[in-house]
Amino acid sequence: MDLSSINRSKQDKIFDFFNIALLTLLLIAVMYPLYFVIIASISNPDRIFAGDVWLFPRDITFEGYIRIFQDGKIWTGYKNTIIYTTLGTALNIALTLTAAYALSRQDFYGRTFFMVMFIFTMFFSGGLIPTYLVVKDLGMVNTMWALIIPKAVAVWNIIVARTFFQATIPNEMHEAAKVDGCSNTKFFLKIVLPLSKPIIAVMVLFYAVSHWNSYFDALIYLNDESLYPLQMVLRNILIQNEAAASMVGDLDSFAAQQRIAELIKYGVIIVGSLPLLIVYPFIQKYFVQGVMIGGIKG
Amino acid sequence: MPNPAPLFTKGIEKPPKYHKNRWKLIKQNWELYLFLLPTLVYFLIFHYWPMYGVQIAFRNFSPALGITGSEWVGLEHFIRFFESYNFWTLMYNTLSLSVLQLVITFPLPIIVALMLNQLIFKRYKRFVQTVIYAPHFISVVVLVGMAYVFFSNNGLINNFIMIFGMDSINFLADANWFKPLYVGSSVWQETGWAAIIYLAALAAVNPELHEAAIVDGASKFQRVIHIDIPAILPIMIILLVLSVGNIMNIGFEKAYLLQTPLNQSSSEIIPTYVYKVGLQQAQYSFAAAVGLFNAIINLILLWYVNRIAKRISGQGLW
């Protein structure tokens, strides 16, 4: 659309000016809080309280990070979250892809029935208490399985993957394979999966992010602190001030403890989000792709 | 495949062909049923079993007796909830927070998408998009943690307020500030991400429409109104129906994390109440009744809004 930039009317120029200005304001509004957390995490807390820290860090100190990494809870949280995310995502992917493929096939008898059955759960559920009782009856309370098995599949992701299969695996391809004596399993493993790398990437990312960020299941199903995922540890530090107290306990005055506790909070925000913020720029295009596939056709 | 002669010529019953095909199809694709089996089992256990278990809302559930062994009490728990002193507060808090959230967070992504779509510098557009998607990947815990440090007495926001010589505000201890904090943080976190879907729809608009409009002398603003908005209208309606249908399922996690003893009068909503009464105080049946009440209102809203959307625009979820 080069046409639009060749002959812009006066009205269009005004429009463009306001458009750029407003989007730039939006950009700053989104970016500044993130930037501020970074500079605050390495600034002297007294200078933050005094309101000296706006654009650059002041009196750079890494004391917050040192205390964070000396604390065992953060490392336990990291370790647990990595385990839950890896196992959980593997299970998610296995179930989502197989189910979505079966449901994508025109000649799969009962597909509408199963789809309706799955989609219905998006709009109605037994609720928190009955679900909790099921997990409890299965003996999963206070085990890592409570964070993995009850979230084995997400309906929305089945819809997205099914749409992808329907759009990219033509029926004729399967017909041809069938004529050659290829079984459904073999066709799925040898033909469908290799052709579906983009959607697999999207699914891995969606599921992995949700496992990484989840804390609610840990809140209701876990009592044992050694099983806590990172988000629970973060919650105790950021919102309940609990673990922060253990990190600053050696400081003499209450005021000094308060100062460092505040610094630790900024550092913990970074430490907790760092893995996602590092991979995010690389995976961004896949996320967008996933939303589009699911959104437009789903 | 040859059609066997129908046995009965009267009526419009299914021809036998279908019957034969069904078994043939199932037999032929038996592996696909194995593919689906784990997911089916998952849904039966973790979604349909709880739906069966929801009957404890009508019983006095005791873990020792089990679901079916517990005594029936009919609507007793519902009546207790309706008559409890905080019923109207909970309803008001849940509904007002949801409506406020919907009214503010629904139109913003549409506006942002329309603006981004008209941005003349393509590189800058990509950069803005990358940045405004990013907060979506921050966890609720970290988001609320950021709200706590920014809005604390010595935080960034109060430092800013004090520059203008005003008194600092204790945002998290003030019930009046709970809703603005809740909705504002959603706007910050999700506006960019929610715009993606509209951007995708806008990318599918036929450029010839715009070219023709330019030839006819339409300004950018006129083209946004007359070409872009109609193009994304179907998606807008679907998303609106979906979000109205989810109105009672307002995010438990964020409300619970943002809740402090001092802002409880406006931050206690039905989901946080269910969690506290049900899991912290172990009143399973009562909490299940409250949860079921919530879910039913939600379902009615979804059904009704879908009907209205279909009548007005011919678009709906089903």
UniProtKB/TrEMBL annotation, chain A:
Under InterPro entries, the record lists:
MetI-like (IPR000515), MetI-like_sf (IPR035906)
Instruction: Name the CDD domains on file.
Output: TM_PBP2
Record's keyword terms, sorted: Cell membrane, Membrane, Transmembrane, Transmembrane helix, Transport
| Subcellular compartments | Cell membrane
Keyword Transferase in the entry? The reply is: no
Q: Which residues form the ABC transmembrane type-1 domain?
A: 78-287
Q: How does it sit in the membrane?
A: Multi-pass membrane protein
Taxonomy, superkingdom? Bacteria
| Keyword Nucleotide-binding belongs to the record | no
Q: Which GO terms describe its cellular component?
A: plasma membrane
| One record GO biological process | transmembrane transport
The name under which this protein is listed is Carbohydrate ABC transporter permease
- Species source reads Alteribacter keqinensis
UniProtKB/TrEMBL annotation, chain B:
Q: Which GO terms describe its cellular component?
A: plasma membrane
Q: Which residues cross the membrane?
A: 30-49, 90-115, 127-150, 229-252, 284-305
Q: Which domain of life is it from?
A: Bacteria
| Database matches in InterPro entries | MetI-like, MetI-like_sf, UgpAE/MalFG_permease
Query: Per UniProt, what is the membrane topology?
Result: Multi-pass membrane protein
Its recorded name reads Sugar ABC transporter permease
Segments forming domain ABC transmembrane type-1: 91-305
On whether Lipid biosynthesis is a keyword of this UniProt record, the answer is no
The UniProt family comment states: Belongs to the binding-protein-dependent transport system permease family.
Q: What organism, scientifically named, is this protein from?
A: Alteribacter keqinensis
Where in or outside the cell?
Cell membrane
Pfam families xref list: BPD_transp_1
The Gene Ontology biological process terms listed for this entry are: transmembrane transport
Kindly state which keywords UniProt assigns to this record, in alphabetical order.
Cell membrane, Membrane, Transmembrane, Transmembrane helix, Transport
